[in-house]
Amino acid sequence: MPLTTRIIPCLDVADGRVVKGINFENLIDAGDPVELASKYYQQGADEITFLDVNASKEGRSTVLDLVRRTAEQVFIPLTVGGGIKSVADVAALLEAGADKVSVASAGIERPELICEIANRFGSQVLVVSLDLKRSVDKRSGFTVTSHGGSIDTGLDAASWIEKVQELGAGELLVNSIDADGTKKGFDLELLNLVVAIAKVPVIASGGAGSTEHFVSAAKTSVDAMLAASIFHRGEVSIAEVKQALQNAGSFVRSAA
Predict the structure, then answer these.
(1) Cβ pair 252, 246 in contact under 8 A
(2) Beta-ladder partners of 17
(3) Predicted confidence (pLDDT) per residue in 88-105, tens digit
(4) Which of 131, 156, 180, 187 is catalytic?
(5) Which residues of the chain have a pLDDT value below 70?
(6) 26: Cβ–Cβ under 8 A, 6 or more apart, which residues?
């Protein structure tokens, strides 16, 4: 039987609250993370992702507490990212109740970290987050950015994707910096590029604004789709997304 397409609400967390902006800027409060995670779980989300926006020392302790409280109420996979720089950070998050961790900027600064996490805990716990942006200077047409899209690393997207897979990435979270928060749809060109060279599951992120956008993204053969503001503001429900996908021929786990 074909694998189900997963729908993943993303909770960007800062100072213990969920925030959301456009192109990673102008953040506004969107609610309590534990309450939102619980609500999405009850609505049929397949996974939940927490991203620590500030990733400060205070933020890390805050997120550990949020993970503990969320794990008590939410019984689907929980991924946590932001500020992870060592296997000790990963161990603390897994002990708190996370199922997977997401690594982005720290993996660019020190690629060995990807290998260390995969070797210590297994590739299945490691999501490598890719903040990608269009660039005419790059062979693939996309460049890798870090720190929430604010720094161009100079890395070609395709080359970096190939490398992180060799280092042990278990999943690829593809964030389109150009589409993030715009609600104009996922970057299909980018997703097709990544899927063509991916040997591990691909999660699409950035730009969801309607159920049709999820249907279009599913046609690229991504394994999962992640969204934030569209769910936080109640503009589209997880059930509506899953129904649209099902109507279009995708396999999904039934919504609650």
Answers:
(1) yes
(2) 14
(3) 999 999 999 999 999 998
(4) 131
(5) 1-2, 21-27, 30, 55-62, 255-256
(6) none
Q: How many CB atoms lie within 10 A of CB 199?
A: 11
40, 79 contact by CB (below 8 A): no
Q: Name the helix (H) or strand (E) containing 131.
A: strand 126-134
Angle at 211 between CA 206 and CA 217, to 5 degrees: 50
CA distance 214 to 144: 24
Q: Contact at 8 Å (CB) between 81 and 52?
A: yes
**Which tokens hold the place of 247?**
């109507």
CB atoms within 10 A of CB 215: 18
Distance CA 101, CA 91 (A): 10
Report the DSSP beta bridge partners of residue 8: 226
Work out the number of other CB atoms within 10 angstroms of the CB of residue 81. Answer: 27
Name the token pair of 213. 């956008």
Question: Catalytic annotation on 223?
Answer: no
In whole angstroms, what is the distance from residue 31 CA to residue 20 CA?
10
- 18, β-bridge pairs: 13, 31
Residue 180 catalytic? no
Q: Which of 239, 214, 243, 253 is nearest to 43 (CA)?
A: 239
Cα–Cα distance measured from residue 185 to residue 167, given in angstroms and rounded to the nearest whole number? 31
Q: Which element (helix H / strand E) includes 215? A: helix 211-218
Token pair belonging to 251: 């396999």
Tokens of 91: 């161990």
Backbone dihedral angles phi then psi of residue 60, each to the nearest 5 degrees: -60, -45
CA 78 to chain centre: 11
pTM (two decimals): 0.93
Cα-Cα end-to-end distance for the chain: 21
| Pairwise CA distance, residues 196 & 34, whole Å | 36
